[in-house]
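The record is passed on directly below:
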Amino acid sequence: MSASKSIKLILAFMAMACFAAPEGLSAQMIGGGGGKKRGGGTGGGGGRLKIRPPDQRGSYFSRITKYTPEEEADGELAGKLSVRPFRKDRKPLRLRVYRREELIINIGSGSFGVDQFSEVLMKGVYCTVNWENEEPKEGKKKSRKRPQLLSISLNPIAVEGKVVEVDGDILIIKVKPSNGTDWPEIAASINPNATSNKRVTNRKKRIRNKKLKLKVLPDVVSMVDATNATISLEDLEPDMPIEAQVIQGRKTGYLVEIKLVDAEASGEDDSDRDGGTRG
């Protein structure tokens, strides 16, 4: 075969390959190619988690990623709260926070109104938010969906363990949930519609001890010893056995109440694995 014929054959094969490629790509894009698709949609073999379409309203156990107060101190809109739900199939939310008298946060014996949200809504704090999409503006059937905050709760949980360290207004404790219950973020991350939840099948891992870093707000925390006599933060020393009510945070949460208990009655098991300071 001459050199010119060989070159023509090579060019012909290259042209066929170039025209065949877009057909294969388009088949994947519409889900008909049977190959793996990015994002795990309906067709093909994608294995990524499907994110639920946005709801009109909901109640999500989440962690705070950011709170931004509005610059206008007297406006109807107080700020915007960004949260990330623990359920993996829920999208993060950015909620509009309006000035309403009923919108308050309770921490221990203290109540904080909307204008104090920037003081207590720390990044990483765990919370339950109730929200709904605002009604479309008058005359606009398809206005942009804007979710607004209806209520927010910083739910305390009961824990038991021991004191690790006191540093100013910060208390570090090593604890696990009382009565063998799960850490709330683990329970909330379980998708009831999933066929398996491999990350939470190990019971011992789910209820491991954690080191929690807690901020102690003045005048809102109950602190007593084993006889129910009032004590202060300065009275706490490392390794003291305790029972407490805490609000968790990814890095820092809040102490709600704490009680010293008898070492013999505490029955603490140091063999549990230390889960670090993050919840």
About this structure: The two ends are 73 Å apart (CA to CA). Residues 57-153 form a domain with the OB fold (Dihydrolipoamide Acetyltransferase, E2P) fold (CATH 2.40.50). Residues 86 and 140 are 34 Å apart (CA to CA). Confidence is low (pLDDT under 50) at residues 15-47.
